[in-house]
Amino acid sequence: MRLLERAWRSLFAAHPPPWVRPVRLKVERVIGRGNPLTGRRMETDMTCFTSDAANAAPRNCILQGDCIDLMRALPAGSADFILTDPPYIARFRDRQGRTVANDDNGRWLVPAVREMHRVLKPGGFCVSFYGWSHVDRFVQAWRGAGFRIVGHIVFRKRYASSTRFLSYEHEQAYLLAKGDVCPPEKPIPDVIDFPYTGNRLHPTQKPVRALMPLIECFSKPGELVLDPFCGSGSTLVAARNLGRDWLGCELSAEHHATATQRLSGAQRVA
Ligand SMILES: C[S@@+](CC[C@H](N)C(=O)[O-])C[C@H]1O[C@@H](n2cnc3c(N)ncnc32)[C@H](O)[C@@H]1O
After folding, report:
1. How does the average pLDDT of the chain come out, rounded?
2. How far apart are CA 143 and CA 136, in angstroms?
3. Residue 255 CB–ligand 1 contact under 6 Å
């Protein structure tokens, strides 16, 4: 499969179809601290593809850096659907002491949401996870950027992430709309099962299986799905599994390397 993928890539790069221009946006050799699964060091090298149309974003690659700056470089209206899982502003720390960058402050929230709104196509949807303890800040940022709230999704866990005043057994996201949107052909339930991932690739790894119904509902095959806070790349894997193009941004070099490696094979990933 790897060989086929490589052959396809080199053929594609050497003889691109007329509507597509392969662009080595930034030839990256990313060396992470190690694959969380195998413990081996990771080396990845990725080519982004973009169409010749002026209004196109790079496709099928993961950019490393602050998503606010990275999104500023993307054309307005170039993403068809945004599915993202930003920091919850909850000072997260797991049992192994792992933390999430920017989870200790909300300074990124308003500028990032503003860019997400600009980059999303008019008539497009965004699904954003959020931290319930700061729902007011998230809602203010979304409305301030121009998003309309058109739904709320509960992800039901069969386990508790923590227990204090309650046994906390769900994750949550809002469905946001930009401008005049058409309802999807087949609306999905707003309660979705959330299997446990084991968080081996990322301290707050989302299950691909819970993300796929959202991508299937709010985008079409071949469209571009953007995740500006992509972590280990779960959204991007879900998008690729469904035949969508994908684009991720990630601040941490370690998670960027994990996501890049996860997306570098051609096979379907859970
Ligand atoms: C909640 S995690 C996403 C986890 C992801 N859904 C997964 O399944 O692996 C949020 C991610 O956003 C990244 N992040 C935080 N601030 C960022 C920024 N300004 N630009 C890009 N990424 C950022 C963090 O490093 C973290 O990996």
Report:
1. 85
2. 11
3. yes
Cα three-residue angle 248-222-66, rounded to 5 degrees: 15
Cα of 213 to ligand 1 centre, how many Å?
21
Task: Determine whether the shortest distance from the Cβ of 46 to ligand 1 is under 6 A.
Answer: no
**Cβ contact 236:60 at 8 Å:** no
Between CA 84 and CA 99 the distance in angstroms is 18
Distance 62 CA to ligand 1 centre (A): 12
Q: 266 by DSSP, 3-state: which? A: coil
**pTM for the full model?**
0.84
pLDDT for residue 166? 97
Domain boundaries, the chain: 61-262
Q: Which of 63, 109, 250 to mutate to test the pocket of ligand 1 (most atoms within 8 A of CB)?
A: 250
Ligand 1 center–CA 154 separation, angstroms: 20
Ligand 1 atom index nearest CA of 259: 9
Q: Is the CB of 229 under 6 A from ligand 1?
A: yes
Asked if 260 contacts 250 with a C-beta cutoff of 8 angstroms, the reply is no
Continuous segment of H or E residues that includes residue 20? strand 20-23
CATH number of 61-262: 3.40.50.150
